[in-house]
């Protein structure tokens, strides 16, 4: 039930072909200072994912925190914790640190802007991504098409294609909401849902054990 269970928990940095042009301050306004999603496995709640947005002078600080516990009866058999912190200046990502505790296996991925681009370091080694990449930690709706992403759980390069599946709906903490569904395919397979304003409502992917992992917003900006 290790990392592959959550390998589609896609906290990513995307290539320019997936870049979204909408300013960060407009996107942050959709969420407020904090935005929560419930995490479920096969329909049973197992944790929460919390996003926080804070503006400091000319920079935006955007943090994500995920905590999950899977139990067999009342005994915890799997724990997962993820923390990431992004710094944005002038709508560009300038730094990101992501720390993961995958049932005792700890990893750290760092992304930092340099003169040559973005230096990426993690368990897969180090490499340089293009300077004008963006972070798509799901709070920022990506456009469709092929591209390259840096998986911040591992630091690896992943090739994906994002497809717009059209109008759909998603069950959330405030009921069933209309949404647009986007599908990631390739090295990552995940469905994500956004409302008409571009607010992230949730996502779904399958774990290696065949379980279905769902994220769904609790208040959804209401």
What would you say this structure looks like, in words?
With 222 residues, this protein is mostly beta strands. The protein has a domain at 3-157. It contains one helix and 16 strands. It has one helix spanning 24-31, and strands at residues 12-14, 34-41, 44-56, 59-72, 75-89, 92-102, 105-113, 118-122, 125-129, 134-136, 145-151, 157-172, 175-186, 190-194, 200-206, 212-217. The longest helix has 8 residues, at 24-31. The termini are far apart. The model has no long low-confidence stretch (mean pLDDT 88).
How are the SSEs placed, and which strands pair?
Elements lengths: L11 E3 L9 H8 L2 E8 L2 E13 L2 E14 L2 E15 L2 E11 L2 E9 L4 E5 L2 E5 L4 E3 L8 E7 L5 E16 L2 E12 L3 E5 L5 E7 L5 E6 L5
Antiparallel strand pairs: 1-10, 1-11, 2-3, 2-16, 3-4, 4-5, 5-6, 6-7, 7-8, 8-9, 11-12, 12-13, 13-14, 14-15, 15-16
Spell out the key features of this protein.
single chain; 222 residues; mainly beta; 16 strands; globular
Quickly describe the structure.
The chain is mostly beta strands and 222 residues long. 4% of the residues lie in helices and 63% in strands. The chain is built from one helix and 16 strands.
């Amino acid at each position: 039930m290790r990392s592959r269970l959550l390998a589609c928990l896609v906290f990513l940095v995307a290539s320019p072909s997936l870049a979204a042009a909408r300013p960060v301050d407009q996107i942050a306004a959709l969420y407020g200072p904090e935005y929560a999603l419930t995490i479920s496995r096969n329909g049973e709640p197992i944790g929460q994912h919390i996003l926080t947005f804070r503006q400091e002078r000319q920079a935006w600080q955007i943090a994500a925190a995920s905590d999950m516990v899977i139990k067999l009866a009342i005994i915890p058999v799997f724990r997962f914790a993820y923390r990431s912190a992004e710094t944005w200046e002038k709508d560009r990502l300038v730094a990101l640190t992501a720390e993961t505790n995958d049932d005792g296996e700890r990893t750290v991925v760092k992304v930092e802007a340099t003169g040559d681009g973005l230096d990426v370091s993690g368990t897969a080694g180090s490499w340089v991504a293009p300077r004008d990449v963006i972070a798509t930690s799901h709070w920022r709706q990506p456009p469709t098409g092929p591209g390259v992403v840096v998986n911040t759980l591992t630091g690896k390069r992943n090739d994906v294609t994002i497809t717009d599946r059209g109008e759909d709906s998603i069950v959330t903490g405030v009921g069933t909401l209309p949404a647009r569904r986007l599908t990631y395919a390739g090295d990552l397979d995940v469905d994500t849902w956004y409302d008409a304003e571009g607010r992230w409502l949730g996502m779904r992917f399958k774990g290696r054990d065949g379980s279905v992992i769902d994220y769904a917003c609790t208040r959804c900006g209401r």
